[in-house]
Amino acid sequence: MEFIFPVRVYYEDTDVAGVVYYANYLKFMERGRTEWMRTLGADQDVLIDQDVAFAVRKAEVEYYKPARFNDALNVITSLEQVRGASVVFHQKICPADDPETVFCEGRIKVVCVTMSSMQPRAIPASLLEDMRRDS
To answer: What's the domain range around 49?
Structure first.
């Protein structure tokens, strides 16, 4: 199952050449994952109150074509793997009107941690169940 999150490229997202600065694609991907979690009813602020957070463990990103100022984009997020304490996402960023053209895609592994210790922990059971159902 894919989750689509629309974003617009703002001037602040671009470099001096007017193209999206490479690190900002990671920010767009983060927003896509956050909004996908929200659709599961897992708001970050609620998780934080429960001493639970997700930290990026690994990011593999490929850049194919530049997105430019004012482009309308879709961040497309899907689950590749769900384990007891980690999730691997596949994400791609495409023009909003052309899902076949890919500007950037990544494979992002996140690990569930206890915020107070930053040590890995099991994903809360109800959230894990929702994730597995959505994958």
So the answer is: 2-134
